[in-house]
Amino acid sequence: MTDLGMKGVIVHARGLTKRYPPDVAALIDVSFDVHRGEMVAVLGPSGAGKTTLFRCLTRLTRPDAGTVSVAGREVSSAEGRALRTARHDMALIFQQFNLIRRLTALQNVLVGRLPQVPTWRVLTRCFARADRQLALRCLDAVGLLDKADARADQLSGGQQQRVAIARALAQDAKVILADEPVASLDPESAAGVLGCLRAVASAGVAVIASLHQVHLAVAYADRILALRAGRLVEDAPVAGVDARAIEQIYERDGVGATESRA
Amino acid sequence: MIPAVAGGREYPEPVVGWLSGRRWRFVAVLVLLAAFYSVSWQLARVDPGKLMTGLPKMASWAAKAWPPATDELSVLLQRTAETVAMAAIGTTVAALLALPLCVLAARNITPSLALYYPARWFLNALRGIDSFVFALLFVAAVGLGPFAGVLGIALHTWGSTAKLWAEAIENIPPGPIEAAAATGASRLKVVAFALLPDVGPSMVSVGLFWWEFNVRASTVLGVVGAGGIGQELKNSMDLLLFPRLLTIIAIILVTVTVIDHTSEWLRRRLE
Questions:
Q1: How many other C-beta atoms are found inside a 10 Å radius of the C-beta of residue A154?
Q2: What is the C-alpha end-to-end distance of chain B, expressed in Å?
Q3: How far is CA A149 from the centre of its chain?
């Protein structure tokens, strides 16, 4: 619990390093903290290590070196039950939304409650009133209360992503990890989704989102982390960031093998 | 408009030689196929002459079969009900047994590859042995009657259904499952809530197909003594009771057609 000694730190990453054989360094000694109520944008060209960073934060990938703790729980070395418990505190948002197509928006939000709901209720799809009310409140928070009964595959991309955010809220996560949440959305829907994440962060959740557009990061995030060739090259509040300096990390200058990784 | 090319020159085309590798392979495949069919023809003892002498015999039976016998209609209908019941119970038992096994046999959600491979082998073994053969064995073990047929159908359909279900599960997009698993929910909850809605309709569709298939298959199970209308069919043929045979064939045709259409209608409603 020492990590929580620092006030409001939710995600605490130190010295994260990950190599893929034979000689691709996806992450090199990456350290940062993310606080409660903060929205952090991760920027960097393809192959800079953004996806590997997210996979290490959620322990879908085990880092070669370094540690991650989320809400005071060690994640990077957790296994089995300990890992499942640690994952309760983090919610994932995906580029492809990953809703269950044939279920309604409300049922998709209830996915966030699965860990706590008794198994028989899951098997019979008969959720307690308290859980249903909580899920409806989450849908209301993302502005989709009127779509509660719509099937997921009948919603637009932006709406689906907002349902995914509601699912994260229903999970009562301390941190939301969004890997390219708006990469497959039109600008208007993207603004809706990022506005939603912004509001969620302001309500006290830590949000880490990887983005491709610097102007979106500047408009919605509190802080920018910039990765390039696996190294953290910038970690600064949006106010103090020179957008042009950030643009420079996207310039091709032959950084080598890491550039080819998707 | 196709853009004009300066000078109207001709484009070089890929050259295919007269006896290129591709042509050779084509000829070789044709020769192999011809050899395969001529050997098969010999092995199957195909003899159109015999058919020519046999056809008039069948025609005379057909003439003798009219009018169809109706005196035993109630017995025959009861036997038909037996056949449909055998198929229904056998298929349902198979589906219940297939449910846990298809999870093990689906590569994307199997708890471990150490279970995946044995599950696949087991299912392939069940699938490889026809319900007819199983029924033959069970008649020897549990005695004559429809129960032997039920067991035969259940075992063969268990393997077939679980394999098709596992394939349906393997074909679903992994994202939603990953998202549900990422909340920290247990495997059972993820399978029940995130996977089932996606594959459920195609699983029911597969189950209906096998019920329909088994009604057709179980009409012959009686031939090995496993009960149902097939047994009456065999008896009538042995005793050369052609009017009775005609009635039985007509009943089978009507039953199978009704069930095929019902099942097809149900399956279409699931889409």
A1: 12
A2: 44
A3: 26
The alpha carbon of B122 is separated from its chain's Cα centroid by a whole number of angstroms, namely 18
Question: DSSP string covering B156-179, please?
Answer: HHHHHHHHHHHHHHHTS-SHHHHH
**The pairing of beta strand A9-20 with beta strand A24-35:** antiparallel
Would you state the structure tokens that stand for residue B30, as one six-digit string? 């044709």
- pTM for the predicted model, two decimal places: 0.72
| Contact with chain B for residue A106, Cβ under 8 A | no
Residue type, B49: G
Under DSSP, the state recorded for B12 is P
**Gap from A65 CA to chain B (nearest CA, Å):** 23
One pLDDT digit (tens) per residue for chain B, 271 residues: 777 766 767 777 777 777 677 788 889 999 999 999 999 999 998 888 888 888 888 888 888 878 877 788 888 888 888 888 888 999 999 999 999 899 899 988 888 889 999 999 999 999 999 888 888 888 888 888 888 888 999 999 999 999 999 999 998 888 888 888 888 888 888 888 988 888 988 888 899 889 888 888 888 888 887 778 888 888 888 888 888 888 888 888 998 899 889 888 888 887 6
CA–CA gap between residue B151 and residue B154 (Å, rounded) = 5
Helices H / strands E in chain B, number of each: 11, 0
> Which letter does DSSP use for residue B9 in this model?
P
**For the purposes of burial, counting CB atoms within 10 Å of the CB of B103, is it exposed (0-12), middle (13-18) or buried (19 or more)?**
buried
- Distance, in Å, from the CA atom of B8 to the CA atom of A6, rounded to the nearest integer, reads 77
CB burial class (10 A; 0-12, 13-18, 19+) of residue B219?
buried
Are the beta carbons of A23 and A188 closer than 8 angstroms?
Answer: no
Q: What are the structure tokens assigned to A49, written together?
A: 């290590």
DSSP letters, A87-132, are HHTEEEE-TT----TTSBHHHHHHGGGTTTS-HHHHHHT---HHHH
Q: Which amino acid is at A50?
A: K
User: Choosing among A89, A99, A106, A114, which should be mutated to test the B contact, i.e. which has the most B CBs within 10 A?
Assistant: A114
CA B200 to chain A, closest CA, distance in angstroms equals: 10
CA A161 to chain centre: 12
Strand order in the sheet with A90-93: A90-93, A175-179, A206-210, A39-43, A223-228, A231-237
For residue A93 the two structure tokens come to: 């948002």
How far apart CA B51 and CA B47 sit, in angstroms, is 7
Dist. CA A42–CA A55, nearest whole Å: 14
Measured between beta carbons, which residues in chain B are less than 8 angstroms from residue A165? none
> Is the CB of residue B221 less than 8 Å from the CB of residue B151?
no
Cα–Cα distance between A202 and A206 in angstroms, integer? 9
